[in-house]
Amino acid sequence: MANSHTGRVAVITGAAGALGKAFALALAKNGCDVAIADINDASSVVAEIQTLGQKAFSEICDLSDARAIAVFADNVLSRFERCDILINNAAFMPVIPFAELTLETFRKFEAINVEAAFLLAQHFTPGMQERKYGRILQIASSTTGSPMPGFTSYVTTKMAGIGLTRALAAEFGNDGILCNALSPGLTKTPESAKNLPPELFDAVRHQQLINTTEEPKDLVGAMLFLTSEACGFVTGQSINCDGGIQF
């Protein structure tokens, strides 16, 4: 599995920290060059990747802006000439009660959580088709199976991301491009630990068959498989990596 990443170019959104950073470093350790788009500065992640002997660059990119996405994609192709692996990891996920949700905010969820993935696929799949190889991984969410109050926009757009993944799998099934979604459970990151009560992590942990709180490192193995040559005949799937949570 590790060798199949050697010499590949991976593009990851939202990799300035937490889950995206864990993915970026794991791919670099397995031989990938990495490009990162994030609303936050990811230069420290780039520096870590470079210490691993791989090429990397990052760009501060507003993924709700189609023009910014186009500039980023052009810069990726200028630097690396291709994208072999696209991981749509960035997410907009404030908790907003339905009564307080505006159409403008709902559309921001759509833009970042769905439209950015669509636009990046438009930019990178032509090259994948030419080379008859590509991996597109959409980071979904276990909340699609168990929605909670305040998550209307997030759950809706994460479900749309799964739909996009399955549609792309149908479009590119004969082109060597495999498209899958990976759904984490409640994952403890600095941001989630700051925004969510500790008792929620405890409650979710007790609902899992694996009785430990999920962390970014727990998703790396599944990501590496779904972006590797070993994935071979798996496409159009939504795979849960949530400790076997029982709703």
Automatic annotation (TrEMBL):
Gene3D superfamilies per UniProt: NAD(P)-binding Rossmann-like Domain
Database matches in InterPro entries: NAD(P)-bd_dom_sf, Sc_DH/Rdtase_CS, SDR, SDR_fam
Pfam family for this entry, one: adh_short_C2
Biological process, per Gene Ontology: monocarboxylic acid metabolic process
UniProt similarity note: Belongs to the short-chain dehydrogenases/reductases (SDR) family.
Protein's recorded name: 3-oxoacyl-ACP reductase FabG
Lineage, highest ranks first: Bacteria, Pseudomonadati, Pseudomonadota, Gammaproteobacteria, Alteromonadales
